[in-house]
Amino acid sequence: MRRHLLTIAAAMTGALALAAGTASAAGAPRWTETGTAYTDTLGGGQGLASHADGSLLYRGLADIPLGLRLKGWNHVGDPDIARGHVFDAYQAADTATSKMFAVTTPAGKRYEYVHPLSQGEKVNNSFAAVSPDARWLVAGEWGEQHRLQVFPAPLLNPSTPATGGTLAEAGQITLDRPVRDIQGCDFVTDTRLVCASNDATGTHFPDQRPLLQVDLPHALDGGPVTGTVTGLFALPQRSTCTSGTYETEGVDYDPVTGTLRAQVIQPGVCAVATTVYAYRETTG
Question: Which range of residues forms the domain containing residue 20?
Fold first, then answer.
């Protein structure tokens, strides 16, 4: 919420044309690109979330509090905001046996909820996405996955401890087709998420680094559910730097304005800047 737009990043990409529209899969909503913004990667390149007043919260590796670093939490993922509470997804070293969700209240008090890894669960904690009813927290792992994890939303779900503690998994969203390298998800409705994938292989979806849609048969209730995955479109790969690798990062949907945003770290020496692409859903 305190990040300034980078004028240097704007200079790097300002000459590049803005796409007039963005194609979506047949039968899926059409998202049209409406603009771009920029944030510094170190301070905001891991994810973003919208406050109720429309301002944006960015997360980057520089945002990890020293106290959490000293406890071994060395990576923060794509955050979310629900009822004024900020939800952050933390992970530690590859040898860690747990992951952690930190919740910061509107008054600025932070509580830590640690989830011991289950058998076969990866240490990665790529994002936090809170359901519209503020009762459930969806998270995801790295690599090829056939699921998203569901937890009771810390603090906001009365089944969780009031001041931090152990967080048990409530259920899973089993995906009807595999996905790879999901960096962030956010709810568009109570039965639909959008997720940003860093998969550039074209193995599961024809687009490189696609934005995906996950449809649920009903709102989350803590039980197992199957999600239908649809590939929407490729996130842009635009930069004046022509060598190096792009990286998809966080995604956010602002229900007040209907704005969808997705982040892409620029390649090579331009990686100091992260581009934030904005979209609006259109008909026709």
Answer: 7-282
